[in-house]
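Write out this protein's structure.
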Amino acid sequence: MTFALHPTLAADSVPVTSLGLSDVRLIRDARYPWTILVPRVAEVRDVYQLSEAQQQTLTRESAQLSRALVALFAPFKLNVAALGNMVPQLHLHHIARSPGDAAWPRPVWGVGDAEPYTDNALTERVHELQTALARTA
């Protein structure tokens, strides 16, 4: 089977970069520094379905993305979660959270409506993430 990004993930995010196993994507919600890590493996819903080597790679890539987000945004807490209730394709959310953000201290899901980035802000955020990820490799 060939990997294909779930249509909801494609609509809700933009590409940042590709790592060894996973694609890093930025969620289209300017209220939070919110990214997802999507392993390019077909028909996988949960981490345990990956091979042991893929699981280890995903863990390293998650740590790399986490370091990049912390370096850029200095959050109070970094939320990392793989829910999959709405979109079954395996993807790991990485959300930099701080007091005063739009949902603090609650989870971000279901709180208000997403605020779109301006074109310039979106381009800048993607570039910042690419640079930070390159530094944390």
